[in-house]
Specification:
This protein is mainly beta. The protein has strands spanning 6-7, 12-17, 29-33, 54-59, 73-78, 86-87. The N and C termini lie close together (11 Å).
Length: 88
């Protein structure tokens, strides 16, 4: 989680990720956004996303052994769909 941010359409989030070289179990990563102000409700079960209902990026949603990068890879998420600047 990041601290609450004021975002607008066109803003970009950038990060790097990788998995191990010899993958034995699949990895998955989701980038999600809550537009519910300063809410920290991330849900109470492994599949509950709480207030973070806006999916911005899903890396390896099929849980394969080869779809998650095993070398450092930069991902950039561009914010869109907001009605104006939003405190998220």
């Amino acid at each position: 989680m990041t601290p609450p941010l004021t975002l607008q359409n066109g803003a970009q989030l950038s990060f790097w990720t990788r998995t191990v070289t010899n993958v034995r179990f699949p990895d998955r990563l989701q980038v999600r956004m809550s537009t519910n102000g300063t809410s920290q409700n991330v849900g109470s079960t492994s599949t509950d996303v709480g207030d973070f209902t806006t999916l911005l990026l899903d890396i390896n949603p099929a849980y394969t052994l080869t779809a998650y990068p095993n070398v450092w890879t930069n991902f950039v998420v561009t914010i869109s769909g907001l009605c104006g600047p939003a405190f998220v």
